[in-house]
């Protein structure tokens, strides 16, 4: 029987914190959990959750994943704990990691989650920062694998803001050899360091393309993906971004330019009519709710591997 294998790195802060083989292993474990073929338990283990930003899917999927593993969760609300008062991360991390066996943290700066990991004696999981959303990307590539067996034959087009979701897709895309195209307005490209890291992994294969033309970016694509144009913390940019992103909506016209069997992904929550239309979300090619479900399976697998 397949059993979770401990990951080489203690923490999961970035898509690149797993090797290629570890990534495939996490997805295999997730598939086994999903199919109810694996009865692995983390009895009495405690997951601490810190969310400095709102969350529905990540919060609930971590709670349920831990519950299915036989463990429990503590959900720390920064406004009702001392975190919101500004207690230093190095103090919070040292204390919480004496109570909990693993921490999942959603915060703003990547350097803050790195600070947590530096001081925590237990594994720290990135539940979203401004730079990356690696748990989301695990679920995204699980959903893609359910449709297309060979990653190397997949063209993934992300239309919209070069944000944390795009960054994590780019990094896993490079690790897996997926052709990744990002179509964004000028000035909204993904993080330069992320692009350079991905290009180093791809070596001289020209499989990462950044363009400002959504129509050319979706030609022959197998996966069309988008996210909100204004991420959490960017509320004051919303009006401006809504104008700058005109023409970057995934609508039936754009979908017609992709491969006829292309699947549609969105990490949710969505603004229907902005980055994607209602019709596309509800279309037969949409896998958006399978993708959301897979959050729970990959996180259950990730917890199992980190705590094995
Ligand atoms: N996709 C995602 O992370 O959703 P939540 O913000 O609801 O957790």
Give the topology, please.
Blueprint: H1 20-34, E1 46-51, H2 57-68, E2 72-76, H3 89-99, E3 102-106, H4 110-119, E4 124-126, H5 134-147, E5 155-159, H6 164-176, E6 179-183, H7 192-202, E7 208-211, H8 214-218, E8 223-226, H9 238-244, H10 252-256, E9 263-266, H11 278-281, H12 288-306
Parallel strand pairs: 1-2, 1-3, 3-4, 5-6, 5-8, 6-7, 8-9
Helix pairs in contact: 1-12, 2-12, 3-4, 5-6, 5-12, 6-7
Bound molecules: phosphoric acid mono(formamide)ester.
Q: Your description of this structure?
A:
This protein has 308 residues and is α/β, with parallel strands linked by helices. The chain has two domains: 15-132 and 295-307, Rossmann fold (3-Layer(aba) Sandwich); 136-291, Aspartate/ornithine carbamoyltransferase (Rossmann fold, 3-Layer(aba) Sandwich). Helices cover 41% and strands 13% of the residues. The chain has twelve helices and nine strands. Helix 6 (164-176) links the parallel strand 5 (155-159) and strand 6 (179-183). The chain starts with 19 loop residues before the first helix and ends with a helix. The structure holds phosphoric acid mono(formamide)ester. Phosphoric acid mono(formamide)ester binds next to helix 2.
The CATH superfamily of the largest domain bears the name Aspartate/ornithine carbamoyltransferase
Number of helices: 12
Structural class: alpha/beta
Strand fraction? 5-15%
- Give helix % range: 40-55%
Q: What's the number of domains?
A: 2
Order of neighbouring strands in the sheet with most strands: 7-6-5-8-9
């Amino acid at each position: 029987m397949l059993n979770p294998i401990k990951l080489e790195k203690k923490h999961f802060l970035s898509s690149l914190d797993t090797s290629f083989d570890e990534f495939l292993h996490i997805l295999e474990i997730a598939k086994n959990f999903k199919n109810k073929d694996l009865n692995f338990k983390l009895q009495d283990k405690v997951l601490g959750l810190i969310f400095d930003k709102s969350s529905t899917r990540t919060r609930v999927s971590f709670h349920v994943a831990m519950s299915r593993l036989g463990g429990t969760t503590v959900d720390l609300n920064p406004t009702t704990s001392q975190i919101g008062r500004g207690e230093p991360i190095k103090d919070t991390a040292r204390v919480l990691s004496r109570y909990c066996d693993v921490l999942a943290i959603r915060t703003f700066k990547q350097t803050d989650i790195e600070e947590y990991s530096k001081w925590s004696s237990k594994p720290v999981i990135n539940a979203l920062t401004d730079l990356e959303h690696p748990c989301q990307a695990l679920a995204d590539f699980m959903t893609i694998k359910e449709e297309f067996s060979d990653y190397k034959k997949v063209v993934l087009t992300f239309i919209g803001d070069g944000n944390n979701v795009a960054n994590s897709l780019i990094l896993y895309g490079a690790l897996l050899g997926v052709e990744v195209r990002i179509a964004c307005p000028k000035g909204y490209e993904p993080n330069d360091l992320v692009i350079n890291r991905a290009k180093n992994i791809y070596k001289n294969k020209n499989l990462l393309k950044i363009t400002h033309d959504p129509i050319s970016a979706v030609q022959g694509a197998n996966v069309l993906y988008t996210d909100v144009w204004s991420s959490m913390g960017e509320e004051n940019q919303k009006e401006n971004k809504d104008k700058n992103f005109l023409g970057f909506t995934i609508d039936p016209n754009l979908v017609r330019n992709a491969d006829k069997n292309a699947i549609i992904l969105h990490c949710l929550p969505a603004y229907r009519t902005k980055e994607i239309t209602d019709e596309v979300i509800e279309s037969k090619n949409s896998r958006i709710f399978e993708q959301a479900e897979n959050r729970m399976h990959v996180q259950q697998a990730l917890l199992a591997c980190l705590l094995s």
